[in-house]
What we know:
Helix content is 41%, strand content 22%. Helix 2 links the parallel strand 1 and strand 2 (46-51). The chain has a four-stranded mixed beta sheet with strand order 1-2-4-3, with helices on both faces. The longest helix has 15 residues, at 55-69. The protein is of the alpha+beta class.
Amino acid sequence: MPLSARQKRHLRGLSHALNPVVTVGDKGLTENVMAEIELALDHHELIKVKLRGDRDVRASWTTEIAARCGAERVHSIGQVACFYRRNPDKPVVEVPTA
Length: 98
């Protein structure tokens, strides 16, 4: 479900008020961290994740999170990345149509 530029822009605006719900630290993307990200995406749909590592590691983590969770990376600035995955049962975030 690739997002259009308009949809990403809308989600970026909504994400400004959010605080990171998960922090990825020295141990990387462990199964527990991935489980927390999955739970947060199921409940909130739009989440921020704080990534504590150097630039190359953060880039690989964002790619891996998006792939493993089936989420779309909305944006990333510094150590914070924002992800979106629509909940098919109970949608929370209103996303404009493409």
